[in-house]
Amino acid sequence: MKAKLMTIKFANIKEGDDLPDLEIPITAKGIVTGALASQDYQDVHHDKDAAVKAGMPNIFMNILTTNGHASRYLTDWCGPSGRIKNVDFRLGAPNLPGDTMVFKAEITKKYNEGGENLVDITFKGKNGMGYHVAGTATVNLP
User: Fold this and answer.
1) Contact status, residue 99 vs residue 129, Cβ threshold 8 Å
2) Rounded distance, CA 27 to CA 31, Å?
3) Domain spans of the chain?
4) Hey, what CATH topology would domain 17-141 get?
5) CA distance readout (Å), 11 to 77, 118, 137, 141
6) Which of 4, 140, 3 shows the shortest CA–CA distance to 75?
7) What is the pTM (predicted TM-score) of this model?
8) Considering all CA atoms of the chain, what is the largest pairwise distance in Å, rounded to the nearest integer?
9) Which of 12, 66, 119, 127 has its CA 20 to 30 A from that of 92?
10) What is the pLDDT of residues 18-31, one digit of tens each?
């Protein structure tokens, strides 16, 4: 049986709505593959000794992998008909192997501009050390 893809409709949401939480286990394999996939060969993302030498307890996630997880969180919510128009975020606590990052978000604005149905979303991804990522996004919905 094929999974049915959900699409969020602009008419069915309102400002103040929360997006469903998303838990992402942080693994060494995920950190390394994310760095390699984004062609980030900085040793602190795949070599524990190099990360420790740099003052970290272990390898840690790179910014492009974080961006991928944030984008996945948004597209999982809006479905295949939604389009991310803009994402802006800042990093905080590092994502280290063995932890879990939990994304949470809220719709802060709903509006029509230039014939597009847009929503502004504030999101945060928190791990055991604190907030790894916090930002905003604008998504175009059908």
Assistant:
1) yes
2) 6
3) 17-141
4) Thiol Ester Dehydrase; Chain A (3.10.129)
5) 15, 11, 19, 9
6) 140
7) 0.92
8) 53
9) 119
10) 999 999 999 999 99
